[in-house]
Inverse folding.
């Protein structure tokens, strides 16, 4: 997958109404033209859990039924990632890796300190053994800083992490609207860069983004023009295609814990979970970190002080999962939304996978 070009929306002017009400347009954002339509089968990574949330191994192709826009569609290929003790499929036969992003741009400085402690707990558990290679990235105002090469040695990675110094943000959360636009721009560009890099790697990838979330501009005073909606829609389409073709699942982990559990920020993104089927319905909220994570088949965590446990839940997706291959349909027009649904013939189990794809003619 190649994203062919990157554009930026112009910064809109700030106008004041007769009653002093501020009306502003949404922020500039990294907007990618969608990659060329994928040729051949598409891969769908599927996680199956029981009522307690534990991954369920041992399922076969015959246990799954795939629906594309509500119609059954053939599963042309099947694979499984299973624990090493399982005789199903060796985990080495389907490469898996995780990238943990420590977001210093959108997260309070004190919370980043908490993240470091929780990362220490995660990396040093199980005598420092990680089930598959893990890379840690720091997101700063100047871009991405990579801590290590992929490794399964959690203890060595923890030692390297302790040598990394925290970075004070040049764009504080108190910087207001234009500070929010800058932080969103950095976040989207960085996700684009991660997708582009991981696309060249084989197998499944988990991107675990530890952050309060990105600026959403979910405000009645925010005015979105038609051209801006089109640009946001193209960004959504491009990220959807990039995550799908790169076999990347995005997870969102909020490190602020129980004291911040009732913050409106933890709930407003849910208003944008309906897939965007047309440019005229696109909104800045459709690019929220939590929304992109949910549509990729990932998890969203907040309101829990045990961030290490939440990271482990994300990692569990890479230790037991299923790989379904199918032939995507052609769209009647460019960027036609196709919803996907996977059902099981076993009651009491929950399925999580990406929500769909944008079909091309």
């Amino acid at each position: 997958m190649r994203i062919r070009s990157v554009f930026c929306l112009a910064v809109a002017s700030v106008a004041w109404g007769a009653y002093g009400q501020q009306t502003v347009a949404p922020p500039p954002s990294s907007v990618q033209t969608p990659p060329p339509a994928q040729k051949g089968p598409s891969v769908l990574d599927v996680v199956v859990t029981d009522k307690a949330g534990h991954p369920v191994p041992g399922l076969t192709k015959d246990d799954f039924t795939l629906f594309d826009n509500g119609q059954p569609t053939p599963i042309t290929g099947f694979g499984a990632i299973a624990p090493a003790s399982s005789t199903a499929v060796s985990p080495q036969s389907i490469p898996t890796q995780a990238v943990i992003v420590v977001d210093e741009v959108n997260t309070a400085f004190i919370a980043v300190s908490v993240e470091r402690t929780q990362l220490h707990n995660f990396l040093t558990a199980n005598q420092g053994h990680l089930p598959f290679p893990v890379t840690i990235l720091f997101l700063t105002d100047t871009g991405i800083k990579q801590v290590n090469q992929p490794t399964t040695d959690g203890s060595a990675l923890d030692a390297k992490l302790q040598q990394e110094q925290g970075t004070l943000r040049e764009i504080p959360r108190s910087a207001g609207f234009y500070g929010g636009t800058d932080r969103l721009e950095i976040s989207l560009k960085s996700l684009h860069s991660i997708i582009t890099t991981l696309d060249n790697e084989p197998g499944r990838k988990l991107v675990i983004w530890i952050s309060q979330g990105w600026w959403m501009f979910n405000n009645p005073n925010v005015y979105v023009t038609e051209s801006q909606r089109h640009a946001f829609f193209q960004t959504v389409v491009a990220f959807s295609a990039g995550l799908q073709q790169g076999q990347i699942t995005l997870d969102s982990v909020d490190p602020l814990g129980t004291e911040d559990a009732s913050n409106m920020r933890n709930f407003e993104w849910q208003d944008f979970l309906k897939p965007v089927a047309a440019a005229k319905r696109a909104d800045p909220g459709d690019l929220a970190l939590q929304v992109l994570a949910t549509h990729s088949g990932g998890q969203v965590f907040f309101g829990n002080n045990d961030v290490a446990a939440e990271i482990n839940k994300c990692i569990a997706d890479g230790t037991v999962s299923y790989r379904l291959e199918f032939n995507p349909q052609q769209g009647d027009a460019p960027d036609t939304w196709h919803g996907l649904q996977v059902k099981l013939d076993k009651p009491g189990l929950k399925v999580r996978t990406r929500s769909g794809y944008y079909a091309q003619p």
About this structure: Helices lie at 109-124, 154-163, 176-198, 226-245, 265-268, 289-295, 307-316. The CA atoms of residues 75 and 187 lie 35 Å apart. The longest strand covers residues 129-140. The chain has a mean pLDDT of 83.
